[in-house]
Design a protein that fits this description.
With about 100 residues, the chain is mainly alpha-helical. About 45% of the residues lie in helices and about 10% in strands. The chain has two domains: about 35 residues, no CATH class; about 55 residues. It has four helices and three strands; from the N terminus they run αβααββα. It has a three-stranded antiparallel β-sheet. Strand 2 and strand 3 form a beta hairpin. Helix 2 packs across helix 3. The model has no long low-confidence stretch (mean pLDDT about 85).
């Protein structure tokens, strides 16, 4: 209709306001819960070398050196080199143990 704003209800109230009011009423009645819910997101089994470098907060060249010196294991899937997350955790733990002198 002429003069009617796009995205408005017939009474001229923006639809966003109507939706917000309905949501508020439903929350007050306990019919919906607006509390943010945690969603379980599965972790990948392995990550690319670039992702591994980012996770360790090191440069890709540093990660390459760890691989060349056989401190960090990788495997190939086709042409891609991947690092298992558990290997990445073990590697980080070994670095931490060297730093602190601990065995745990």
């Amino acid at each position: 209709m002429p003069g009617e704003q796009k995205g408005s209800s017939q009474e001229g109230i923006p639809r966003g306001d109507v939706v917000d009011k309905i949501r508020l009423l439903l929350e007050e009645e306990g019919l919906i819960d607006s509390t943010p819910q945690l969603v379980a997101v599965p972790l990948p089994v392995a990550v690319s070398l670039e992702q591994a470098a980012a996770l360790l907060a090191v440069a890709p060249s540093t990660l390459d050196e760890f691989i060349r010196s056989r401190q960090l294991r990788f495997f190939r899937m086709g042409r891609r080199k991947l690092i298992r997350l558990d290997a990445l955790h073990e590697f980080a733990k070994s670095l931490e143990d060297k730093e602190t002198g601990g065995d745990s």
